[in-house]
Structures are given as C-alpha cells and as structure tokens.
C-alpha cells in the first residue's frame, strides 16, 4: 500500500493559471500564489489555448520546502525502512526511471512504500530541496537519501544495494 501524503499535507493548487494579456516580450510578472509566497511563471513560458485571446502561465512556488513539509518528510522517511518518491505508484509507474527502480526493489523482494509526486506539486518541489537532488525517482533507505535511478541501478549491479537493504531491514 502506498503511503498517503494527502492526509499529512493539504493539496495546494500551486500550478494555478493566470491570464495575461501582455505581449510575450514583456517580463513575466511576479504574482502571489495560493501558498502566499511570491512566485514567477514556470520558466516564463507562455502557453496559448486555442480559441482564447488571453495567454495563460503556469506558476511554480519559489519556497516549496516549508517547515511543515520538512517535518512531514522527516516522519515519512524515518517511519519506513524503504521509501520511493516516484512518478506514479508501484502498481502503475508513470515514468521509465521510476519503473526501473520499482522493478529492482521487487526483484530483491524488499517491502517498500511509494509516494506519487505527481499528485502534489508542493511535495514535488519541496523534495528537490529536501534531498538536494533535482530529479525523480528518489529512494530513501533507513531514513537516508540513497539516490535516483542511475545510482540505484549501479548499486544494484555491484551488489551494494542488496547489502545496504539487508542491513536496513535487519536494524
């Protein structure tokens, strides 16, 4: 069963859309998103919807790792021996890299929890700061960040992953 993050942290509509009737050459405005932080449009990319005269911008929150989110993440990674923050779920991975790590953990018969980072943009952005790792999936073993897909694959090939998981599950 996948760990539930929604109960611990309310889903915030960080990916809100704003309409802007300015030309694309004008610098993107700073706006106040629902998290009450000042945010800028995601990459300054303007997306035009067919049939609409206005433009819509996607926003990304600038201060994603709040103290509450950090506390929640600490509890999640310490309450399970193996936690995988991934795109999708272990039963339905929505990314090839996430699927690769799931298959490795399954091949080792390791019990693990997953959290779908696609369900909560604040979680997704906050995890990048929490781990100092910009990509997903992110594997945590015994409360410590282990790495992403490439590191997990390499450690699996060398046998290091199996050793670390055995130690973690015995402790």
TrEMBL record:
A GO MF label: 2 iron, 2 sulfur cluster binding
Domain Glutaredoxin: 82-145
InterPro entries, per the entry: Glutaredoxin, GRX_PICOT-like, Monothiol_GRX-rel, Thioredoxin-like_sf
Alphabetical list of CDD domains matching this protein: GRX_PICOT_like
Pfam family, one: Glutaredoxin
Keyword NAD: no
PROSITE patterns to which the protein is assigned, alphabetical: GLUTAREDOXIN_2 (PS51354)
Record carries keyword Repressor: no
Annotated SUPFAM superfamilies: Thioredoxin-like
Protein family (similarity comment): Belongs to the glutaredoxin family. CGFS subfamily.
Protein name: Glutaredoxin domain-containing protein
């Amino acid at each position: 069963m996948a760990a539930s993050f929604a109960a611990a942290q309310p889903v915030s509509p960080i990916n809100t859309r704003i309409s802007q009737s300015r030309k694309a050459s004008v610098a993107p405005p700073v706006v106040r998103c629902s998290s009450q932080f000042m945010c800028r449009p995601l990459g300054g990319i303007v997306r035009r919807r067919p049939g609409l005269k206005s433009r819509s911008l996607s926003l990304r929150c600038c201060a994603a790792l709040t103290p509450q989110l950090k506390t929640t993440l600490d509890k999640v990674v310490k309450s399970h021996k193996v936690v995988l923050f991934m795109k999708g779920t272990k039963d339905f991975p929505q990314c090839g890299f996430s699927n690769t790590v799931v298959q490795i953990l399954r091949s080792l018969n390791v019990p693990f929890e997953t959290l779908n980072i696609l369900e909560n943009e604040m979680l997704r952005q906050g995890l990048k700061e929490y781990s100092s790792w910009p990509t997903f999936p992110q594997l945590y073993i015994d409360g410590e960040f282990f790495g992403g897909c490439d590191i997990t694959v390499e450690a699996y090939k060398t046998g290091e992953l199996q050793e670390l998981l055995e130690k973690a599950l015995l402790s």
